[in-house]
Structures are given as structure tokens and as C-alpha cells.
Amino acid sequence: MADVTEVRVDVDAAGVAVITLDGPERLNTLSGGALRALGAAYRRCDADDAVRAVVLTGAGRAFCAGADLSPRAAAFAAPKGDFTASPVQPPAWRVRKLVIAAVNGHAIGIGLTVALQCDVRFVAEDAKVAVPQVRRGMVGDCQSHFTLRRAVGLAVAAELLLTGRTLTGREAADRGIASRALPASDVLPAALTLAREVATEANPASVALSKRLLWADLDADAVEREETRAHLALLGTDDAKEGAAAWRERRPPRWTSSAGDHVDPA
Predict the structure, then answer these.
(1) What residues make up the domain containing 238?
(2) Residue 98 pLDDT more than 50?
(3) Which of 169, 170, 227, 264 pairs as cysteine with 123 (C-beta 3.0–4.6 A)?
(4) Is there a domain that residue 216 lies in?
């Protein structure tokens, strides 16, 4: 039986890939198949040099209302030998491009934990966001005990993960869970504007190196060493010269490097 929610990928002329969770009649709830398809979409975007930035969003009025808990998805709740609580592989934070979650509506459970794997989150002001798994006899998934604590610290992470309470999008932004809270109709356009700006202005190799550093679990001394390696990889390259020339000449840069030049694939 086909999954209720499909995963669509559309790439525009600017090099922005829009990944859409497309099952609006069920608020884009996710089954195991859809989660695997999302991982495949990330791999496609990571490998395609024409893709410079990625936006993840939901069709209709929700981003994702959580796991598909209908009887037809019973296999999702019956772990097998290869079960993992992080079924989206690679997670968004391993994709070598900027990944923005355009949380256009409710993001509940795995809907929010998938968004937490993205680099930036824009959220609808009136959306409901929650990781309610402790109220369902479970715990948060998709590495949320890493991503949420890393994004907002232990106190706010505990508020969500240990209580299962629901916040509005505005409250989520106030707590740092999202970068911006906007009217629902403005969320995707704002995410696309930022993604296209990055796709045009930012060097793909620089983004990949900086992203890998941001998500690495390194102490200050290790970061210094990795930043030095990144500088040594980039200094003197054609793109380093092009970046300076484009700034002096007040024109868009013409990059020749790719995200995979210095960072291995996910």
C-alpha cells in the first residue's frame, strides 16, 4: 500500500531544492516509507552540485502532524531487527548545503524532531509545536536529545522533551527553537528568499566546511584546528579571489567550487 504522505523534490533555476512533505489530507503524517524517502531526497540534494540550498516544508495547512498512527501503518510501531529511532538518513545536518525548515503549520512529534535536524527554522506564529512522546509512552526521536539541547540548552530542551507540552510557533521562536515566527502564509516565501540569497551569494565549499564545523561536537581547541584546515583549503583558490573581486565590483560572485570539494558526503 502506498504511503499517505509522499516526498516531492523540486529544484528551481536559482539552485534551491524544495522538499515537500505531501499528504495534506492527513496533515503530512509520516510512515517509515516516507521517512526513508526523505532521507533519499536529502541524499539527492547533497550529491547534486546544481543544488545550492534546500528548503523542507509541508503541503497544505500543516508541516507534519507526527507519525502515522493509523492501523495501516502498524508496521511503523512494530520494531524489527534493523529498527532505528533516527530513520531519516542522512539527517539534514549532514547535508552539505544549507537546509531550512519552513514550518508552515503544526509540527508535532517527529514533525518537529525532523525540523530540528535542519540548520534554520522559520515557523508559523500560530503553529502548534511539540515533542509529546513522553505522553505517548515513548521518548523523542531523530536525535532530538542532541539537536534540541544543542540549539537551546538543557533547560528549554527539558521543558519540551520531559513534559511533552505544546508551544505556539511564537513561543518556539521566543525560546530559540525557531529563528523567526511569521504569519503562516509568509513562512515558505521567507525561507525561499533566504535560500536563494545563499544559493547566489555563498560559496558552496565554504558553506559545506562551515556547516560541518557548526554541527561537529568539538571543543575550542579542536575548532581552532579545523578552522585552520578550512582556511588552508580555501586560501589562494580561484573562489577566494572571486569572492573578493565580486565584492569590489559590486556584482554576484561566479563560484566554481562545489560542496564536495573539501567535505566528504554524508
Answers:
(1) 203-249
(2) yes
(3) 169
(4) yes
